[in-house]
Write a structure and sequence with these properties.
This is FAD-binding protein. It contains twelve helices and 20 strands. It has 391 residues and is α/β, with parallel strands linked by helices. The strands form five sheets. It has a seven-stranded mixed beta sheet. It is globular. The structure holds flavin-adenine dinucleotide. Flavin-adenine dinucleotide binds next to helix 1, strand 2, helix 8 and helix 9.
Length: 391
């Protein structure tokens, strides 16, 4: 597939995994990323079920396990700080501690994927696609920098607020399903003195938690508030988002203290709990992957795993279709639709936000584990051996 030039928009989890697999099948890959480098930040994320099989085929499972968050357990408190339960067997973010699933920091996974891709693909940082025109010859892309280039295919892996989706499929409002919650995630000093521990708080209208990270040197704060109506704010204006968070979180648990650290946080991430639902994930030579096409929201617990599985399936089906992108895109959807629907449904289960007892948590983890494993990967020959392609 060399000489099949593919442009991937976004160097997040989906984009980097896609670059890895397309390169391994011999496509000629360019990645454009709006940020100056793959963006760090984020809370603990999970690789579980079928996504672990993908990681196995990438040869990165040992690295994932090395980077695993080293939690001893978790507790849940109410808005006054009264403990509802505590467990040394599971965490609220990662599930059963001695199970096969891997919970790690999002930025560690980004670095790991970047290393797995190596220098074999071209990166265009600090840039973004301004326009895409398609015809029988290809997808003709103009970048915001002013450069213009043609590709056979464009993969939109640019996250929840996908630029490619907006340019090719229409406005975000056509595809978004609001789940009634906003969250902010950021790093703070370990102001609670947590020792490999996470404590979460569930209270009407406000919720979240604090989790120690990096050998207890710091914590990741995770704080959200309910809003039935979608809020109007600038996705690029981080200071305004911090203000929005501070203004909407009341005097609940330790959140007022946690929010004192938000102003200096280097890695603040804020977004609505929303899902993306689309009738089609491709149009012409353009296809969507990960959050761009089927965001499940952090409430699904499966955004990262869906991105990894989606990247494997899309690249594999394109390779199997031998250059027929319409057949490849159709097979990608056929293979992945049911898996995505089941994973997105996890965020909508009524009792997922009512984890008041250890039994509730066990039920939720059992359901998640079953759905996360519900797809069996196909073999897409001929991929190179990871030992030969990884540097
Ligand atoms: C900084 C950050 C922190 C996150 N923290 C959490 C978290 O704590 N918990 C959680 O559950 N999920 C979090 N997520 C979302 C989570 O990473 C995704 O749900 C999941 O991993 C699927 O990944 P994705 O690659 O589809 O999307 P993302 O990980 O969102 O990656 C999208 C990438 O596209 C880039 N991009 C966006 N617009 C453009 C553009 N116009 N041109 C080029 N590139 C563009 C972004 O900079 C980013 O690198 C976070 C995402 C980001 C970017």
């Amino acid at each position: 597939m060399r000489n099949t030039p593919v442009l991937i928009s976004g160097a997040g989890i989906a984009g980097l995994a896609q670059a890895y697999w397309l390169d391994r099948y011999g496509f000629d890959v360019t990645v454009v990323e709006r940020a100056a480098e793959p963006r760090p930040g984020g809370q603990a994320i999970d690789v579980r079920g079928t996504a672990l099989d993908v990681a196995e085929r990438m040869g990165i499972v040992a690295d994932l396990r090395r980077l695993k968050t080293d939690m001893r357990g978790s507790s849940l408190v109410d808005g006054t700080g009264k403990e509802l339960y505590s467990s040394t067997e599971r965490t609220l973010t990662g599930g059963v501690l001695d199970g096969p699933d891997v919970e790690l920091m999002r930025d560690d996974l980004v670095v790991l994927l970047r290393e797995a891709v190596g220098d074999r693909v071209e990166y265009l940082f600090n840039d973004s696609i301004a326009a895409i025109a398609q015809d029988e010859e290809g997808a003709h892309v103009t970048f915001e920098s002013g450069a213009a280039r043609s590709y056979d295919l464009v993969v939109g892996a640019d996250g929840l607020h996908s630029n490619v989706r907006r340019l090719v499929f229409g406005p975000e409002t056509d595809f978004i399903r609001h789940l009634g919650m906003y969250i902010g995630v950021y790093t703070a000093p370990n102001f609670l003195g947590l020792d490999r521990w996470q404590t979460f708080c569930m209270e009407d209208g406000v919720g979240g938690g604090v989790m120690s990270a990096r050998g207890n040197a710091e914590v990741r704060v995770y704080v959200g508030f309910a809003s039935e109506e979608p809020l109007d704010y600038d996705y690029q204006d981080i200071e305004a988002q911090k203000r929005l968070l501070a203004d909407n979180v009341g005097d609940v648990w330790i959140f007022p203290t946690a929010l004192k650290y938000v102003w200096d946080a280097p890695d603040f991430y804020f977004d609505a709990m929303v899902q993306i639902h689309m009738g089609r994930w491709s149009r012409g030579r353009v296809v969507l992957l990960g959050d761009a096409g089927y965001c499940g929201s952090p409430m699904s617990g499966q955004g990262t795993s869906m991105a990894l599985v989606g990247a494997y399936v899309l690249a594999g089906e394109l390779a199997a279709a031998g250059g027929d992108h319409e057949a490849g895109f159709a097979a990608y959807e056929a293979e992945l639709r049911d898996f995505v629907a089941q994973n997105q449904a996890l965020a909508l289960v009524d009792d997922r936000d009512r984890l008041e007892t250890a039994g509730d948590a066990d039920d939720a983890i059992a359901r998640l584990t079953e759905v996360a494993r519900s797809l069996t990967l196909k073999d897409y020959a001929p991929a190179g051996d990871p030992a030969n392609v990884r540097r």
